[in-house]
UniProtKB/TrEMBL annotation:
Record-linked Pfam families: Cu-oxidase, Cu-oxidase_2, Cu-oxidase_3
Record-level Gene Ontology MF annotations: copper ion binding; oxidoreductase activity
Organism: Stephania cephalantha
Top-level taxonomy: Eukaryota, Viridiplantae, Streptophyta, Embryophyta, Tracheophyta
Keywords: Signal
Cleavable signal peptide: 1-26
Coiled coil: none
Protein name: L-ascorbate oxidase
Length: 555
């Protein structure tokens, strides 16, 4: 079991002088990346369009890390607009400075660079990074981020032959700037133009295999939905998938013939090449939509050039199927792993809830234009990042705490209040968050800085008596949860990661138009045990630009 502050301490007894004892504290390994972010032209749907490339690649390069690695990414912004990357699902314990959201970081100006330094502390699993500014995610700039278990930590399945990352997502053929202009003018985005799998539709002439499998061997596929609007169903012709990990939790290993992957979610599955040697299609298709958009990706068996069957397996229909699948995902309580909050919320079912925060998403308007909201307010970003306003003690010049209540207004207003939405939480409180969706579209919510126990999703409206249906034993600890139409979802977590953390709709249009907010968790101690200091290499922005740095946190 992973534990906080685990470091290898080596005692070296120097033989020459028996009285000298030297303690060497080995630091966790570093991995370094230099990333050039530029525009490039791609034509995944047959029409040339502007995309965001990282070192010339779309999707961007994979980060392959191991638990507790220090990851250093020097990002050069070669775009003509500000840029930030966020590390979806990485908890950044004590370190919201590296979260890369507009509420925590000054965006990297065009032509400049910024270095992210973060540790993938006590985490394992499959994640991704993405550009968090404006509509940039609709142009690329995203890629896979995996955290392998350390060598000494047993993994609850045999080492796969290889490890493949599959980025699926719906896609628009217009540039992110055009999409942003539509939204700024008050118009909705409408339906996407296609679905991509690792940057391709699979409809290209001479489709090349994305992956190769050796007959008889087992492979790990990590599938993330980095799309813009839709839940996708993922399946592989004739092959079953054994789910082993979801967003950082090792699961009870059930076998599925298809998986619903909602926006922002990542699943790891094992696939064995135990069928007739030939080609097989992976399929990702839109769910809960009147239209049917899909992408395919080819897997070939080594040594065989035989083509795949053109007959694609069908997706399930309706969302009841999807809800049942959610309920079948369980945490493997006996698997050893780097656990989130090992001592704290592991027995999460026995901890008393100290605060319930219930939020209702809605569509409305502000200043006559389309906006999306939470409990009647629609978030707006500030020029001075919220975290900096707090750190420099100038909050009152930038935002007000608790602009929304812990419970939604009885009737959701059509007019949404435009404001930065920040709710403060008491450090280490055990909190229940209920997401209620009164709308007809599926919602997907993500919380930065944490993983939470996804204890229930049910149709209808939430009330306290629904708690009796919570899974208080082996719910998955994850960072993203879907909420079906006219349904609710509940999650439990300990607010033990001090910082400023974004809670957001993964639907890009909703995120861009205000369906997001921040939790501020301040440790009263102002101690380095609870939160790191602002990195000294940081460039500041907004009203704190010329302010003297406050006294640093101390031990
Ligand atoms: C990034 O761009 C700079 C200048 O254009 C170039 O010197 C450098 O090699 C590039 N780095 C990578 C990793 O592509
Ligand atoms: C990723 O890292 C692991 C552990 O260091 C290593 O075994 C594996 O070969 C790496 N995979 C890739 C694709 O680099
Ligand atoms: C920008 O890149 C240079 C060259 O690699 C590096 O020395 C410097 O620290 C970087 N600046 C920031 C703010 O990360
Ligand atoms: C859970 O993990 C243990 C330990 O690695 C493993 O032996 C067991 O098969 C797993 N259980 C299930 C139901 O997947
Ligand atoms: C939880 O609340 C109940 C009822 O108020 C109380 O009896 C119990 O001691 C509390 N448990 C913990 C662990 O605080
Ligand atoms: C949250 O903010 C309110 C209003 O500013 C303040 O009264 C309260 O003490 C704060 N609570 C915490 C836990 O920081």
């Amino acid at each position: 079991m992973g534990s906080h502050g685990e470091k290898v301490s080596v005692l070296l007894l120097l033989c020459l002088s028996a009285v000298t004892i030297v303690v060497v504290k080995a630091e966790d390994p570093y991995i370094f990346f230099d990333w050039n972010v530029t525009y490039g032209t791609i034509s995944p749907l047959g029409v040339p369009q502007q995309a965001i490339l990282i070192n010339g690649e779309f999707p961007g390069p994979n980060i392959n890390s191991t638990t507790n690695n220090n990851v250093v990414v020097n990002v050069f912004n070669g775009l003509d607009e500000p840029f930030l990357l966020s590390w979806n699902g990485i908890q950044h314990r004590k370190n919201s400075w590296q979260d890369g959201m507009l509420g925590t970081n000054c965006p990297i100006p065009p032509g400049q660079n910024f270095t992210y330094h973060f540790q993938v502390k006590d985490q394992i699993g499959s994640y991704f990074y993405f550009p968090s500014t404006g509509m940039q995610k609709a142009a690329g700039g995203f890629g896979g981020l995996r955290v392998n278990s350390r060598l000494l930590i047993p993994v609850p399945f045999a080492d796969p032959e290889d490890d493949y990352t599959v980025m699926i997502g719906d896609w628009y053929s217009k540039s992110h700037k055009v999409l942003a202009k539509y939204l700024d003018s008050g118009r909705a985005l409408g339906k996407p133009d296609g679905v991509l799998m690792n940057g391709k539709t699979g409809k290209e002439k001479d489709q090349k295999p994305l992956f190769t499998m050796k007959p008889g061997k087992t492979y790990r596929y990590r599938i993330c939905n980095i799309g813009i609007k839709n839940s996708l169903n993922f399946r592989i012709q004739d092959h079953l998938m054994k789910v082993v990990e979801i967003e950082g939790s090792h699961t009870v290993q059930n076998v599925y013939d298809s998986l619903d992957i909602h926006l922002g979610q990542c699943y790891s599955v094992l696939v064995t090449a135990n069928k007739q040697p030939k080609g097989y299609y992976m399929v990702a298709s839109t769910r809960f939509t009147k239209y049917q958009l899909y992408a395919t990706g080819l897997i070939s068996y080594e040594g065989s050039k035989a083509p795949p069957s053109p007959k694609l397996p069908a997706a399930p229909t309706g969302w009841a199927w999807s809800l049942n699948q959610f309920r079948s995902f369980r945490w493997n309580l006996t698997a050893s792993a780097a656990r989130p909050n090992p001592q704290g919320s592991y027995h999460y079912g026995m901890i008393n809830i100290t605060r319930t925060f219930k939020i209702v998403n809605s569509v409305g308007t502000a200043n006559g234009k389309l906006r999306y909201g939470i409990n009647g307010a629609s978030h707006t970003d500030t020029e001075t990042p919220l975290k900096l306003a707090e750190y420099f003690n100038v909050v009152e010049k930038v935002f007000k705490y608790n602009g929304i209540q812990d419970t939604p207004p009885k009737k959701t207003p059509a007019q949404l209040k435009l404001q930065p939405v920040v709710v403060n939480q008491t450090f280490r409180n055990f909190v229940e968050i209920v997401f209620e969706n009164h709308e007809k579209s599926v919602q997907s919510w993500h919380l930065d800085g944490y993983s939470f126990f996804a204890v229930a999703i049910e149709p209808g409206r939430w009330s306290p008596d629904r708690r009796k249906n919570y899974n208080l034993l082996d719910a998955l600890s994850k960072h993203t949860i879907q909420v079906y139409p006219k349904s609710w979802a509940a999650v439990l977590l300990t607010m033990d990661n001090a910082g400023m953390w974004n809670l957001r709709a993964n639907t890009l249009e909703r995120f861009y138009l205000g369906q997001q907010m921040y939790f501020s968790i301040l440790s009263p101690a102002r101690s380095l045990r609870d939160e790191y200091n602002i990195p000294d290499y940081w460039k500041l922005c907004g009203i704190v630009n010329d302010l003297p740095k406050p006294p640093p946190y101390t031990i």
